[in-house]
Design brief:
It contains two helices and 22 strands. The protein starts with a helix and ends with a helix.
Length: about 325
């Protein structure tokens, strides 16, 4: 019993680790690596993960490869036995592919696509982790009953290396990257997610999401937003006492306003053509997740009473998802 508690404590305070070793189905876990090259002509997301179902026939590992400019996405399925995760740190292998925080090594060759090569990632800080607030989820990260957990592992880092995709060499050296992950029983019933680290200068990164969060028979619009400016993070989240004061979602934009006792965060995301990616529900990878890497996000961060904004800039090459029952979120926030 003490050993299990110690393992649970260690894994909770290390969101990058694999969390499924002792989980009962349904369970999924996936890591999200976003890479944009130096001149922004290449925008890729690579998503490795595993899905464990009540139906053993649905058990499988996967690697998704998403070309954010062409919109082409491929889902490469592997037997669950091909998934290997080292205990005590993040080192995941799926078939011949390997994923760590400092690099990914790809070797995919099937009827859908061939992808090979290695991309190395520079140093970067993730969401702060402490015993009180173990990462992006804050104190909610300690609750074993949450439907979905989320972690921001690297806000912004340099990318070096090349991939060869269907015979075409793609050079990412000098580009920028971002890493996050999700794990749990299912994606939420509805959510908005957005991320960019391509502002007018390096050193600025932004990630935010709001979702339908079920809890104890009810639900609430759980949200978090992190703005990193030269290593200083400004966090707005349900657990910090911040408030979502406005959420507007149309076919062409998302307007979201958050406030706390000292600052105001205004977000205006311009939507773009999206590709439907497979995502987990409690039964299979049948949730369809509309994602784009062609959005833009204007972020304005101001201190109350200040005449000059801490940040007033537009991020490009932005990831954006508007999925599921967003009307429920909008109604709750704007009530």
């Amino acid at each position: 019993m003490l050993g299990r508690i110690a393992r649970w404590f260690d894994s909770t305070t290390h969101p990058e680790w694999y969390h499924g070793a002792e989980k009962q189905p349904p369970f999924f876990e996936g890591w999200y690596f976003k890479m944009v090259n130096a001149d922004r002509s290449l925008r890729y997301a690579v998503i490795p993960g595993i899905f464990i179902s009540d139906d053993p026939a649905q058990h499988h590992a996967f690697v998704q490869v998403f070309d954010g400019l062409s919109g082409q996405a491929t889902y490469h399925r592997y037997p669950a036995s091909d998934f290997q995760a080292e205990p005590g740190f993040f080192d995941v292998r799926i078939g011949k592919n390997r994923f760590r925080l400092d690099r990914i090594e790809l070797d995919i060759d099937d009827d859908l696509r061939t992808v090979s090569g290695t991309l190395a990632f520079g140093d970067s800080l993730g969401w702060p982790v402490s015993a009180v607030s173990p990462g992006t989820m804050g104190p909610f990260g300690w609750l074993p009953i949450m439907e979905c957990y989320h972690g921001v592992l690297k806000f912004d880092h340099e990318v070096t290396g090349r991939l060869t995709v269907d015979g075409e060499p793609l050079d990412f050296t000098g580009g920028r990257g971002y890493v996050e992950k999700d794990w749990g029983k299912s994606f939420p019933a509805g959510w908005v997610w957005m991320q960019t680290n391509h502002f007018s200068r390096t050193g600025i990164s932004f990630s935010a999401s709001v979702a339908v969060v079920p809890l104890l028979g009810g639900w609430f619009p759980g949200f978090l937003a992190g703005v990193s400016i030269d290593g200083v993070r400004h966090v707005f989240a349900t657990y910090t006492g911040a408030r979502s004061t406005k959420l507007e979602v149309t076919d062409d934009h998302v307007l979201w306003v958050l406030e706390d006792n000292s600052k105001r965060l205004e977000i205006f995301a311009t939507r773009a053509d999206a590709t439907l990616l497979p995502g987990p529900n409690r039964h299979d990878m049948g949730t369809r997740v509309p994602e784009t890497l062609k959005a833009t996000i204007h972020v304005k961060l101001t201190e109350h009473g200040a005449s000059v904004a801490l940040l007033d800039d537009t991020g490009e090459c932005a990831g954006l998802e508007v999925a599921g029952d967003v009307d429920r979120l909008r109604a709750a926030i704007n009530a």
